[in-house]
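From: lab user (bench 3)
To: helpdesk
Subject: output format question, protein + uridine-5'-diphosphate-glucuronic acid

Hello, I'm new to running complex predictions and I'm not sure whether the block I got back is the full result or only part of it. Here's what I submitted:
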Amino acid sequence: MDFDKKILCIGAGYVGGPTMAVIALKCPEYKVTIVDINEEKIKGWNSEQLPIYEPGLEEIVSKVRGCNLFFSADIKRGIREADIIFVSVNTPTKTFGLGAGMASDLQYWENTAQQILENSEGPKIIAEKCTLPVKTAQAMERILKTNSNGAHFEVVSNPEFLAEGTAIQDLLEPDRVLIGSHQTESGLRAAGEIAKIYAHWVPREKIITSNLWSSELSKLVANAFLAQRISSINSISALCERTDANISEIAYAVGSDRRIGPKFLNASVGFGGSCFKKDILNLVYIAESYGLSEVAEYWKMVVRINEYQHERFVASIMKAMFNTVVGKKIAIFGFAFKANTGDTRESPAKFIGRKLMEEKAILAITDPKALGNARLDLEGMDGQVTFEPDPYQAADGASAIVVVTEWDIFRELEYEKIYKNMKKPAAIFDGRNILDHQKLFELGFNVYPIGKPSLTHFE
Ligand code: NAD
Ligand code: UGA
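Helpdesk reply: Thanks, we reran it on our side. This is the complete output you should expect:
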């Protein structure tokens, strides 16, 4: 079949996979190919067992795969054939050298630039989909301009705002699509080409255009603002626990102000995920590198409060369990960094699980989608841990349940049955405030929510 255009995405991960699947679904006249250096991952995308779990993804992939969506490990060919290339590779925090622990590790991104340079025979539009430090597009242009065949590459920024667990919904009905480009004739033309793709299903007024640097920086700032809201409410949850105020009542009262709004005000064990921390640290690093130390310090505190929230949660478990968990079975309900994903990157469960294992607790971890990743995350740790698909089994004989992920199934369990099979006194630490605390208390549990008075049977 002849296609109007050939789109390539480099990087078949949490962003590349779902985003391109939706583009393929909505643009049948375009051929969409996704390539990755990880051949196993490509095999997974071509199988019935996709490498990531995302509600709604399987249905879309099965509709378009083999029609106009293709997964391949042949990166060279993909680049040669493409008119438009989306770059969606990982950009983790650097762990070595200059900027270690703060700056973006751009090695994967630079490799893609080299791959594009070496394998392109003609002009192309390159769309940065990964989250990058401001002015990275310029670096990409500098690398691509060294090509010997005179081909013109126009680099645009098209950051992705999807959240895991709701990726398909977010892609089908985005709040906005952002496209940053040079304000030159060829830059605007390239932005127009990218806009044309999204215009297949996104209303035009939601497709925002800007200059390149604003687009790159907007992505970091959007994540920083979202994370800041969580750290703000979590900081107040600590105050609530000292004053008998209730964080849910406060979030409701504060969020009812339309200028503030109700979203992202759920107090929790702290945020996780591959991006919030890394993107804020990246923002901090950029601010520092421009000598803006006050700006850097301001954003650093969002990350610090998040760590404090993880630490506070573990400390409260220890205190409530008489300062020792040695040999006690503790059921961890949820290992994913949020519900509806199997992703455990930067999950608070990792920090909590490790700390409890260091304290010699016996862990039983249950999660509907993340047990495989949990196993990898705790590999090499000393101590006892089991991975249990059935939450009832995980809680059997346990002294405590620790809710770390807000999976719906944890709300719907028969806690009466669970309580009967637990060791007494039985505690529940609800790190997501998703359970009916009063009811659990009445069943006999000692209940420890976040930012609310605990309910205990002790004198
Ligand atoms: P990921 O780790 O899931 O996927 C990245 C993929 O790129 C990997 O499969 C890796 O093998 C591949 N890759 C690396 N170098 C390559 C190369 N040279 N050639 C071909 N493939 C290569 O990462 P992700 O979560 O999809 O994130 C990608 C980018 O999108 C990051 O910059 C991230 O900050 C950003 N982002 C992520 C999310 C999210 O929800 N995960 C949301 C918005 C933006
Ligand atoms: C986040 C952003 O929401 C996306 O817009 C962005 O594209 C993405 O990061 C990215 O750049 O990677 P994601 O991390 O997938 O998406 O999920 P979120 O829903 O933002 O949740 C992040 C963390 O915050 C989770 O651990 C979640 O449980 C926690 N959270 C969220 C809270 O603790 N309280 C809340 O009220 C909301």
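A quick orientation on your result: The chain has 18 helices and 14 strands. Let us know if anything else is unclear.
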